[in-house]
């Protein structure tokens, strides 16, 4: 655990090795969204076309080198989106979204990696940091995640991160109207902790 005040004022920062999950500034959020707007990611996500960042624009965002966050002048973004930053490359490597489902009865975690960081074992890092955010910063006892049954890479990442498969597959409708067979996963801890009650802001895991 490293001492820092970075979880104050609604900002969250978590570290693991070369990666950092953090509340994004506006241009970090744009890059994080761009990370999952390519055809491969959208095969699984099924966003409507108006939400997909065009290729030239997303390539520009993802190639942008980020300055040290302490030098940012813009206020951080707000909401349920977090940027996964590769500190070795000083670039956004992915996105994590922690939000309530439409009926507000449960919290769900989702996200994905930029093309440059896929198939390298980093999906488990993304989702493990997401579980730390949910259980040790938001104070949530249970968080859920779902993915298409055929998406073996994502299923493996969720299991490696600490999720448990919740049961049989079920039909799920994507935002673009497609219906897919989805598998659901969950993680529950007995004693969740809110970072507002923690002494230090940085969180790390091994």
Describe the structure.
The protein is of the alpha+beta class and 206 residues long. It has a single domain, classed as Gcn5-related N-acetyltransferase (GNAT) (Aminopeptidase), CATH 3.40.630. The protein is 24% helix and 27% strand. The protein has a six-stranded mixed β-sheet with strand order 5-4-3-2-1-10. A hairpin with a 2-residue loop joins strand 1 and strand 2. Helix 1 (26-34) packs across helix 3 and helix 4 (122-136) packs across helix 5 (152-161). The chain is globular, with a radius of gyration of 16 Å. Mean pLDDT is 85; it is low at 1-5 and 197-206.
Q: How are the SSEs ordered, and which strands pair?
A:
Layout: E1 13-16, E2 19-22, H1 26-34, H2 39-45, H3 55-63, E3 81-86, E4 91-100, E5 107-113, H4 122-136, E6 142-148, H5 152-161, E7 164-165, E8 170-173, E9 179-188, E10 203-204
Parallel strand pairs: 1-10
Antiparallel strand pairs: 1-2, 2-3, 3-4, 4-5, 6-9, 7-9, 8-9
Helix pairs in contact: 1-3, 4-5
